[in-house]
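Database export, one record per block. Field names are fixed; values are copied verbatim from the stored entry.
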Amino acid sequence: MTVRSQSSWFFERSFSSNVEAVFAIYGSPEATQHLSFESRSHTGADSIVARSMASAKTTPRTEYALAATGRRTRELIGLGRLATDPRQQRAATFGFALRPDHWGLGYGLETVRLLLGFGFDDLGLHRKWGARSPLNEASAKTMAAAGITEGGTIREHVHKGGQWRDSVVRAILEREWAPEPEPRR
């Protein structure tokens, strides 16, 4: 599967040959500081790749792992995940992470918008939601810019680094989704 945007390409096949690139994201303490898990070892990154590739072959499919690539280099610089839940009607959770050297360049917003478009336009979802660390202001700004509304706080939701941490929940409904118009050629 390939999902395209004007400047980046998001595709699953890139996972199979990019364990090092996945490790550069999920193995980085800086990149994972606000995520719900500790940075991963190289073996952990390999497991993420294997799980993502296996999930692409399951029926019915409940998880989609997408790789974000650089605008010019096409190297893997970020990851996005969308997971449906059979206990929630037409709903899914999503998350994203970027290599720190690509923060502040618009890739986060582009990744989130592509995940939203894929969920609403291709999968026919009604609601998508994500949770973030209360300290992750960049994620808050990115999600707000994508039209995702803050809905509340899950108290002591994540146990990381020996401490409990809250999560701020944001959600968007299908009727609130406004895809960006296609660029003129």
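Remark 1: The helical segments are 19-26, 29-32, 42-55, 107-122, 137-145.
Remark 2: Strands lie at 2-4, 9-11, 63-69, 76-84, 91-98, 127-132, 149-160, 163-173.
End of record.
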